[in-house]
Structure formats: C-alpha cells, structure tokens
UniProtKB/TrEMBL annotation:
It comes from Lupinus albus (White lupine). PANTHER family: CALEOSIN (PTHR31495:SF15), PEROXYGENASE 3-RELATED (PTHR31495). One of its GO terms (molecular function) is monooxygenase activity. Belongs to the caleosin family. InterPro entries: Caleosin-related. The lineage of its organism: Eukaryota, Viridiplantae, Streptophyta, Embryophyta, Tracheophyta. Transmembrane segments: none annotated. This is Putative plant seed peroxygenase.
C-alpha cells in the first residue's frame, strides 16, 4: 500500500486524496520504463500498442491472456536495469489479473481495454451482479 501512495505522490506531486480520483489530465505522469506503451508520453491512447498486447502475447486465446502469457508480456516490456519499473509493471498487471480474470483464469481484451478507457469498474460491477443473480437463481 505504501508503494501505491508513493507512486501517487510521484504522479500528482501532492499527498493523494483518500477518494483516489483518476486525474486523466495527468495520466502521462504514470508512465514508466517497462510499461506497455499503450499511452504515449503525452497521455494519448495508442490503439496499435493495445492490439499488440494480444497479437504478440495471447497465444491460446486471441482475445484473452493467461497468467503465463501475461508474465511473458511483462518480461518482454522490461527495460534493462530499470528494476523499479519492472516491479511497478508486474504489480500493476498482477493486480489487474487478480481482480479482472474470468472463471477460466483469463484476462480478456474487454477487461484490459477497461483499464485504458475507464470502464474497468463498470465491467467488474456487471460481472459481480451477474454472479449474484446466478447464485440466487440456483437456490
């Protein structure tokens, strides 16, 4: 948790709000050496880099990543000697995998896109609601 707070202070230059707002105007400040390149240095979404995540690394399913494929992608994005960025990248993707994987252990393209377009939590809420409805129906 401390790592997250320090990163937020680094990005925004101030003590973070307890509400964890996402300040899109400063999104480029979150870039690090071993990131995926989906946002450029000015914070613009680069569609080709997003598609590259799946075209290069999604080998078993064209629109989803297994955890092993995700680890290979993270390794492939590493900048030599930039250990802080290695750790940051691993933690970001691992956290996304933990909260976003489906019942088959796959991180879908839709969920990953949600990180970049801001719809991640809507997708997760919908998934959770569907799960609850199915549990109620099975009673």
């Amino acid at each position: 948790m401390l790592l997250i707070y320090l990163k937020i202070i680094e990005i925004f230059g101030k003590f973070p709000s307890i509400l964890f707002p996402i300040e899109v105007k400063n999104i480029q400040r979150g870039k690090h050496g071993s990131d995926s390149g989906v946002f450029d240095t000015e914070g613009r979404f680069v569609h080709s880099k997003f598609e590259e995540i799946f075209s290069k690394h999604a080998l078993k399913h064209s629109n989803a990543l297994t955890f092993d494929e995700l680890k290979e992608m993270i390794k492939g994005n590493r900048v030599p000697g930039d250990y802080k960025a290695w750790l940051t990248s691993y933690l970001e993707w691992k956290f996304l995998y933990v909260i976003g994987k489906d019942k088959d252990g796959l991180l879908t393209k839709e969920i990953v896109r949600g990180v970049y377009d801001g719809s991640l939590f809507e997708h997760l809420e919908k998934r959770q609601s569907e799960k609850k409805i199915n549990e109620i129906r099975s009673i």
